Structures are given as C-alpha cells and as structure tokens.
C-alpha cells in the first residue's frame, strides 16, 4: 500500500504519486503535507535532495481548484530551477490536469504572454521576469492562494529582496505562504515573519546540514597545479556524471576549454550565456552526452539530476551555505555521492569555517600518484581491448602491417609498442605526491620539518631563499612556519597542514639550473 494514502489526498493526486514511483513520504513531506493541507504558513528546512518540491507541491496541487485562474505562485532563484520545479509539479498534477507554466528571463516575453492567456493555474517563475509581467499587466495575482519561495534564503537574500517585496504586495493578504530551503539562516527566519502569518517552523536534521550519504573529501593543491590536480582526481574516481563548480564565469569558460582540450566531455553553464545555450547544455548533461558540467553557483541550488556521482569544488565556495547546496547536487533521494573540494594554502581557513558551520568533517585525501592512475588506466584499457576482441570486429586491415612488423620483431614487442603509443606520453610525468614522512623529526608538535639542500646555488642569500620559497608555495613562509638556513643546508619547519603544499611546491624546484633538493627530515634515531 502506498503510504501517501494516509493523507487526505484525492485519487487523482495519489495516482500521480504512484506513477512517480514514490512509495513513502520523506521526513519533510511527512511533516509538511498535513500541515499545509491544514492551511497554515510554514518555514520548512530539510537537507538537499529530500523531496521539498513535492512537500509543497502535493498539498498545493491538491487544494487548487480546476477553475482556470492563477492560484499558485512558486518563485525560484534561477531559470533552470523554475523549469525543473514546473516539470515536477506537472507530474503531480498529471491526472488533475492543472496548467502549470514556468516564466523566466531570457525567453521571448511574447510567447509567455500568449501562454498566460491559456488559463494557467500555477506559475513558477524567477522574480525579475514575474515582476516584468506584473508591471506590464500581463499577469494578475489577485486570486493567488498559495505562494511558495523555494530556496527561500537565497530568494530573500539582498539582491532579490525588493523584487520579492513588490511581488508579494500584489498578492492577496489571505494567501498561504510557504518557505523552503536546505539552509535557513537566522536573519531569514526573522525577515520571513514579516510575510508569514504565525508560521510553523519545521526543521529536519537541522544540526547536520549535509547528508551522511555524501562522502566529503578535500585535496590540498597549489594554485599553479590546480588543473593538473583536478585531472588526476577525476581520472582516479569513477565519475558517472560530475558537476564542477568555479567561482567566476571567466573561470568556468577557461576550465571548460582546458578540459575539452584534454579530451574530457565537458561543457559550461553560467549567467552570461544565452538561455538557448543554457538549456542546451543542461539537456546534454541530463542526457549524458556530456560527462562534466562546469558551472558557477547558478547551478548550485535545487537542481535535481539523479545520476550525478560527484560534485567538485574546483574553487572553494565563498560561504558555508553555498557549500551545502553545491554538494547537495549529488547523493539525492536515496543515492550516494562524493563531494570533492580543492583547497589552496590560503583557503585552509575557509575550509575550517565551512566544516564548523555545517557540523561535519571533510576528510583530507592525497592526490593519486601517477602510478595509481596508470594502473587504473591500464585496467580500463584491458577492458576496452577485451571488449573489442570479444566483439569479433573485423580487424583484418592491420594484417599487412602486422606481418611486416613481426618479420623483424616479436609479436609481444609489437603489441607493447602499440599499447605504448595508444597510452600516450602521460607515463613520463613525475609524481606530484611522493610520500613524505610525518613522524617524530625533532619538529615541534603539529609541525613538519623538511631538510632542504640548495646545492651549489651559492648566490642564494638567506633573504632570497625565503623569497623564492614563499613564491613557490604561494604563501609567505612566515605565516605558516620558518626557515633555518645553515650554509647550503637548511630546514623548513611548517604547520602540519601546510606540509603537502611545501612538498609539492618545492620538491622539483630548480634555481639557475640547480635543483633544490628537498626531503622530509628523518626522525632522530
Ligand atoms: N517520497 C519520495 N520518494 C521517492 N523519491 C522522492 C520522494 N520525494 C521526492 N523524491 C525525488 O527525490 C529527488 C529530490 O527531490 P527535490 O528536488 O524535491 O529535493 P529538495 O529537497 O528540493 O532538494 P534541494 O534542497 O537540493 O532543492 C527528486 O528526484 C524527487 O522526484
Ligand atoms: Mg528543492
């Protein structure tokens, strides 16, 4: 028996829920559906991917009458989310046959005006475009009974607040108002009380903003090796679909180009692209014709694509809320997911702040070595070769070539050379991540000491060494530790968490053609 039938829902709605494959209500649905049916205002907070859309969608669609006037309004912060929410609500309303229309910027307004004349029941819109229609008098909200702010904290955030206030002022006072988000900062709750009548506050797992089904890890990387590090990371994980977040539109463009040039199936999305392009990229990603979606925070909130196995913060998010929403694009409904954050030396503090705010730990991981990646790739090659051989595909075009080669070389030599060529030059790169020693080295507690031999770089003054080292690790050395210089031999002692950066930044460093030799100080025996 479908557990949704415990609620006072009509047959049309229950049939739709059944068809959507929902067997039992999620915790936020359990808590909100009866409450909303009871006509009360509500602030609902529950983790990402736990069904907040249906939590407001089911009772709202239940209560809306078939009379063809606009009775429901859902506001969302982005166009992609408006499209997605209207798709989900259409499924819920499939048998009741309500007309549901997304209206958002970037779409020809004429087409929307025409559609609005078709007798629409529910509008899902972005604030700017909704306001545009209100001002043109092409939309009327005097019969609105239900107003939902999805991603309420984002919606009420400074940039949107005036638009939202103006929209709300055009709706009747006796409307029911519902706010939903995975994050609900305290200020927002206060502000919300202005617009809600005696709202009930429902929070599911509010102490733990992120889901245990999302594995959270981070890698320490240096800015100059970021792209390389990213490639190593994604090559060593089994990514089925990945969203890679960048801070700016420019870095989305640059990373997209760099990944495409390296043969990854990647495409970018951000607010400066045409809506046509944005829709095209989203569709390609959903259909899996691209594997990596490179995005700004425009894709951070609400987007629900079930098979996203990995979210990668190429640039660390600006605030803990953004982190929560970004990583919530994976591990949705009952699925598992992996969230990876790249952290440069200057960003360590920010990572700690995020950890503190979200109330869970982000585990450090070390970059896979070249050897590990080669092993992994060899496995993939093996599989591909086996598949090709098993497919009985006709490969006779190579017979002549093979005959010529095998008259001079052994067959296994020829095969190995062919594999080498196919396998490309990657094998020649050196590892970025040789293991280093973290033991008792005479370093102070919580510090790691490296032995540094500057070879015959005799013109290196102590001041110059400090300067060069700071430059290489992208951080003033005085901020993270110190250097002791004794003639050609020196020690660098740094806080433990910065040790990987120092090692990665210095171990292959050359000055005037001489390599600076760096090795972790051995424990005193
Ligand atoms: N009761 C249910 N049983 C099974 N699947 C469900 C149920 N409710 C919702 N889902 C599915 O779970 C997925 C996530 O739902 P939804 O997008 O509403 O999450 P959300 O809580 O709004 O997340 P976010 O905070 O990221 O916006 C959707 O694909 C939805 O269809
Ligand atoms: Mg949502």
UniProtKB/TrEMBL annotation:
Q: Does the keyword Nucleotide-binding apply?
A: yes
Report the top EC class in one word: hydrolase
Where does the record place the Helicase C-terminal domain?
A: 213-375
Q: Which residues form the DEAD-box RNA helicase Q domain?
A: 2-30
BP-aspect Gene Ontology terms: response to cold
Q: Which UniProt keywords apply?
A: ATP-binding, Cytoplasm, Helicase, Hydrolase, Nucleotide-binding, Stress response
List residues of the Helicase ATP-binding domain: 33-202
What domain of life is recorded for the organism? Bacteria
Q: Which GO terms describe its molecular function?
A: ATP binding; hydrolase activity; RNA helicase activity; RNA strand annealing activity
Pfam family, any one: DEAD
Motif (Q motif) positions are 2-30
Q: What is its EC number?
A: 3.6.4.13
The answer to keyword Lipoprotein applying to this record is: no
Q: Which reaction does this enzyme catalyse, per its entry?
A: ATP + H2O = ADP + phosphate + H(+)
One cellular-component annotation, GO:
ribosome
Task: Spell out the PANTHER family in the cross-references.
Answer: DEAD-BOX ATP-DEPENDENT RNA HELICASE 47, MITOCHONDRIAL, DEAD-BOX ATP-DEPENDENT RNA HELICASE CSHA
Q: What's the family?
A: Belongs to the DEAD box helicase family.
UniProt name for this protein: ATP-dependent RNA helicase CshA
Species: Vulcanibacillus modesticaldus
């Amino acid at each position: 028996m479908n557990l949704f039938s415990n609620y006072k829902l009509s047959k049309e709605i229950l049939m739709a829920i059944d068809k959507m494959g929902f067997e039992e209500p999620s915790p936020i649905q359990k808590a909100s559906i009866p409450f909303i049916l009871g006509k009360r205002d509500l602030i609902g907070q529950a983790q990402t991917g736990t069904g907040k859309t249906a939590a407001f969608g089911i009772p709202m669609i239940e209560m809306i009458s078939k009379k063809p006037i606009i009775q429901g309004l859902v506001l969302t912060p982005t166009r992609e989310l408006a499209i997605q929410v209207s798709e989900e609500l259409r499924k819920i309303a499939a048998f009741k046959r309500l007309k549901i229309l997304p209206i958002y910027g970037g779409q020809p307004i004429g087409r929307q005006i025409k559609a609005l004349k078709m007798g629409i029941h529910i509008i899902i819109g972005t604030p700017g475009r909704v306001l545009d229609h209100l001002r043109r008098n092409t939309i009327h909200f005097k019969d609105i009974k239900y107003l939902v702010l999805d991603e309420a904290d984002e919606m009420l955030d400074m940039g949107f607040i005036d638009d939202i206030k103006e929209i709300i002022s055009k709706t009747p006072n006796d409307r029911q108002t519902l706010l939903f988000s995975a994050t609900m900062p305290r200020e927002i709750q206060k502000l919300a009380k202005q617009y809600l009548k005696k709202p009930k506050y429902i929070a599911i797992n509010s102490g733990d903003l992120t889901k245990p089904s999302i594995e959270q890890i981070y890698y320490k990387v240096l800015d100059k090796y970021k792209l390389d590090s990213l490639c190593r990371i994604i090559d060593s994980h089994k990514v089925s679909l990945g969203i890679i977040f960048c801070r700016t539109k420019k870095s989305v463009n640059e990373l997209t180009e760099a990944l495409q040039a390296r043969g990854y199936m990647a495409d970018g999305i951000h607010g400066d692209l045409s809506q046509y392009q944005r829709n095209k990229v989203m569709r390609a990603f959903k259909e899996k014709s691209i594997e990596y979606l490179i995005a700004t925070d425009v894709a951070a909130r609400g987007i629900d694509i079930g098979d996203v196995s990995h979210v990668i913060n190429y640039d660390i998010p600006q605030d803990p809320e953004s982190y929560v929403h970004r990583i919530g694009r994976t591990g949705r409904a009952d699925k598992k997911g992996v969230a990876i954050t790249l952290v440069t030396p200057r960003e360590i503090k920010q990572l700690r702040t995020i950890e503190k705010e979200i109330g869970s730990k982000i585990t450090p991981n070390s970059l896979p070595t070249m050897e590990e990646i080669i092993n992994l790739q060899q496995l993939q090659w093996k599989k591909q070769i086996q598949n090709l051989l098993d497919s009985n595909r006709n490969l006779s075009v190579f017979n002549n070539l093979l005959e010529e080669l095998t008259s001079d070389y052994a067959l296994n030599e020829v095969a190995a050379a062919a594999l080498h060529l196919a396998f490309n030059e990657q094998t020649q790169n050196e590892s970025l991540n040789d293991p280093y020693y973290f033991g008792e080295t005479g370093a102070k507690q919580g510090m790691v000491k490296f032995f540094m031999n500057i070879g015959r770089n005799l013109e290196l003054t102590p001041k110059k060494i400090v300067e060069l080292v700071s430059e290489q690790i992208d951080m003033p050395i005085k901020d993270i530790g110190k250097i002791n210089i004794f003639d050609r031999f020196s020690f660098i002692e740094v806080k433990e968490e910065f040790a990987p950066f120092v090692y990665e930044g210095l171990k292959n460093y050359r000055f005037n053609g001489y390599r600076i030799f760096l090795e972790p100080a051995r424990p005193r025996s």
